[in-house]
Amino acid sequence: MASMMYGHFSLLFVLLFTLDLTLACRRCPDPPKPVEDESHDKKTWLFAVDGRRQPYNFLDNDGELVGFDVDFMHAVCKAAKKQCKMVLSEFTECIYTHRDINYPGRGLMAEWFDGCPGFVTAVDREDTFDFTDPYFDTYASYTVAPGNPSSFDPTSNDFSQFKITHLTGAVTNSKCLARLKKKVGTIIVAADLPEAKALLLNRTADVLFSPRSKIPGLEVLPYRGRCDNGGTAIMTKKGSRLASWWNPAFKSLVESGEFDRLCDASRAKYNSRIRCKTSPTHSIPSDSEHHHDKVWLFSASGRRAPFNYVDNEGRLVGFNVDFVQKVCEVAGRKCATVLTEFTECTYTHRNVNFPGRGLMGGWIDACTGYGDTLDRENSFDFTDAYLMSDSFYSVAPGNPSGFDSTKSDFSNFTFSK
């Protein structure tokens, strides 16, 4: 059966534009911009956790959200004189995995909340997220069913004969294994820890790759690796100003000894090992250093080599990534290319192209690599073109339907796009 593939090599930036309001106010003066007084910040900063990570965040017998993350948040926010609250949210609203690429969750991108505590900084996350300074140490471990029935050896560099599972959105993934120079075969992404545990116990998977040191009913092998780029921190949307006030406040707790006291108290309070960093690093500029500058976010799916793709070690690279950065440098703008699924930019339903929720909801400012077509101009605006675009017809090997692209009558063929 013949199939048709429309070329998307192009292209053009897709930029959302509110046509009626802009046309009506084209000659109107710009309204005055409000002046923010950071010393009297009225915003309530929201931090999202899933409530399933004892001793870091969990629901006690009365249903109250407690744990080290909650205590730590209150301590830092008090030092920064900020209003903060912890909210419950599924962790997939922060990050999730689809076809071996980690994407940011809708909750973080749509700004339902400002940060997700307890996420590891890593190479394959830093293209898509910003992070506060890390406050926990972390590692990567290998977990097997009791007795290690597959005789998995974590010290080997060849894992190709084993089926490895990891949690969706986890930093312990195929990209980390590539950075560790491990040869891998089958990777199974589990929706949550109970699913991963079941995969091991029913022998669908041989090993779980995770940052866990203890999983009831399973055997965590003693070998440890590293997937992180500094430790565990609060993960934020690109361009967030959270770190600009959080990091100085956190630093003040470290220097006063209050952070050490909080860690010691939490170990006793929750009867658990809290892996606080002994010497946290500090790198994000303080509140006074231009944190009001907007960061323009450009979307990329990570599946369009050579224009944008995720390399073997998890870095987002490609022509579009380089091009955006160079144009932004010339324009004197702060920009970042972030991973989002292409349907957040545009999708087709009943043969009509509609704008995606990511672009319409302000998760991102533009989508790179889209052709400027007549039917798209009903919904989008475009920058000037920077690449040529072509359309192609693709068929099964040998062209079994005898499709002739030079003909004008395609009515006897079924098309896929």
TrEMBL record:
A Pfam family the protein falls into: SBP_bac_3
Domain Solute-binding protein family 3/N-terminal: 44-270
Signal peptide (residue range): 1-24
Main subcellular location: other
Subcellular location(s) per record: Cell envelope
Key words of the record: Signal
Keyword Signal on entry: yes
Stated name of the protein: Arginine-binding extracellular protein artp-like
Organism per entry: Plakobranchus ocellatus
